[in-house]
């Protein structure tokens, strides 16, 4: 995939994620408490429970991205599930999907999330708040 094709792909993923995220957020109650469990790959928001696949973490302080499959602090089950994101390397040819992590701006991290959500067939994403680094989760029905 050329740089121009990759840019078009990222733009398409970003647009798709915007629509998915809007639909996902309409399902949620504002201000609901949330909790994620990495051991059983679930995300609870209010009284709703979703399955999830961790995508990665982003540190705004250091401007770095780390894929969940490369995060040795995560359970092996989580890391294995997250490895499906590496398929993006096959379709794009871009090494960022095989490298454990990379320097990234917040916008670049959002693009990685958008492409991962598409790859994983998720209904949206959830980003933890109040934590650094921020954890991004792909949310499934």
Task: Summarize the structure in short.
This protein starts with a helix and ends with a strand. Strands 1, 2, 3, 4, 5, 6 and 7 form a 7-stranded antiparallel beta sheet that branches. The chain is an alpha+beta fold.
In whole angstroms, the N-to-C terminal distance is: 31 Å
Uncertain segments? none
Count of DSSP-assigned helices: 4
Measured on Cα atoms, how large is the radius of gyration? 14 Å
Number of strands: 7
Residue share in β-strands: 25-35%
- State the oligomer: single chain
Share in helix: 25-40%
Compute the average pLDDT: 93
Largest sheet: 7 strands, antiparallel
From the spread of the alpha carbons, the general shape counts as: globular
| Count of domains | 1
Structural class: alpha+beta
Q: What is the H/E string? A: HEEEEHHEHEE
Describe this structure in words.
With 141 residues, the protein is α+β, with helices and mostly antiparallel strands. It has one domain. The protein contains 4 helices and 7 strands. Strands 1, 2, 3, 4, 5, 6 and 7 form a 7-stranded antiparallel β-sheet that branches. The longest helix is centred in the first third of the chain and has 25 residues, at 3-27. It is globular and about 45 Å long. It starts with a helix and ends with a strand. 30% of the residues are buried. The mean pLDDT is 93.
């Amino acid at each position: 995939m050329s740089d121009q094709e990759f840019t078009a792909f990222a733009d398409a993923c970003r647009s798709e994620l915007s629509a998915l995220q809007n639909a996902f957020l309409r399902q949620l109650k504002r201000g609901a408490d949330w909790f994620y469990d990495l051991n059983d790959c679930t995300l609870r928001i209010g009284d709703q429970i979703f399955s999830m696949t961790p995508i990665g973490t982003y540190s705004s302080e250091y401007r770095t991205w780390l894929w969940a499959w490369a995060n040795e602090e995560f359970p092996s089950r989580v890391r294995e599930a997250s490895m499906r994101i590496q398929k993006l390397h096959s379709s794009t040819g871009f090494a960022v999907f095989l490298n454990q992590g990379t320097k990234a701006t917040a916008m670049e991290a959002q693009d990685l999330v958008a492409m991962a959500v598409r790859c994983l067939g998720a209904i949206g994403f959830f980003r933890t708040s109040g934590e650094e680094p921020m954890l991004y989760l792909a949310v499934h029905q």
